[in-house]
Amino acid sequence: GENVEQHPSTLSVQEGDSAVIKCTYSDSASNYFPWYKQELGKRPQLIIDIRSNVGEKKDQRIAVTLNKTAKHFSLHITETQPEDSAVYFCGPQGGSNYQLIWGAGTKLIIKP
Amino acid sequence: DVKVTQSSRYLVKRTGEKVFLECVQDMDHENMFWYRQDPGLGLRLIYFSYDVKMKEKGDIPEGYSVSREKKERFSLILESASTNQTSMYLCATHAHSSHNEQFFGPGTRLTVL
Q1: Of A32, A45, A105, the CB nearest to B42
Q2: Nearest CA among B112, B58, B68 for reference residue B88
Q3: What are phi and psi of B20, to 5 degrees?
Q4: What's the gap in Å between the CA of B5 and the closest CA on chain A?
Q5: Between A and B, how many CB-CB pairs are < 8 A?
Q6: How far is CA B1 from the centre of its chain?
Q7: Is A102 at the interface with chain B, CB within 8 A?
Q8: How distant, in Å, are the alpha carbons of A14, A38, A75, B23, B79 from that of A48?
Q9: Measured between beta carbons, which residues in chain B are less than 8 angstroms from residue A100?
């Protein structure tokens, strides 16, 4: 089955700086790569996703890049703000059409 | 907007009790999931269902069962609660027709004493 690793587990950055979180997966058949954000006490919500026919996707301050050859994709957040503080999960699609295989999460801390 | 609700936000039960957690969605999604979330372990899949009366085991089904009698409702059952089942439980839904986004409920924090 799919094996997913997410790094780092905790990331602390100065407000205004950039943050990068990386997700490595093992299933070469995976073709959908999302990132979810979970603020403290709230439910996880999709913030950006990418499909395997695209190498990069941007949405304002966030972007996702995909390297299918190396089997990893990354979340990039630029000009970080206090409201970016949260836990971020990657969840590449596994063997079936229904399941997402989740990384362990990255706690992002934005220092004022 | 997809609406996914869970029966309780907080629940305290005693060891050995039978516990029911319910999830209801109003968007006619075929697929429903139950996860537990523990610090440092991410989201671990307990069971999922892709249709009424259908269920599949996830990665950690031991100690749990599920029921899906109606499309909008997916129940997680702890037959005899144990202290190691103290956790946050999250329900999620997904539509066959959509891309693969899963929509989550608000979660139930279960404490087993």
Answers
A1: A105
A2: B112
A3: -115, 125
A4: 11
A5: 46
A6: 20
A7: yes
A8: 23, 13, 9, 25, 38
A9: 100, 102
Whether residue B4 contacts residue B25, with contact meaning beta carbons closer than 8 Å, is answered with yes
Q: B-chain residues within 8 Å CB-CB of A44?
A: 43, 90, 104
- The residue count of chain A comes to 112
Concatenated DSSP letters for B65-89?
EEEEEETTEEEEEESS--GGG-EEE
Q: pLDDT, tens digit, for every residue of A47-101?
A: 999 987 889 999 999 999 999 999 999 999 999 999 999 999 999 986 666 788 9
Which residue of B lies nearest to A47 if distances are taken between CA atoms? Answer: B101
Q: Are the CB atoms for A18 and A80 separated by under 8 Å?
A: yes
Question: pLDDT by residue (tens digit) across B16-62?
Answer: 999 999 999 998 999 999 999 998 888 999 999 999 999 999 999 99
Q: Quote the tokens at residue A66.
A: 């995909």
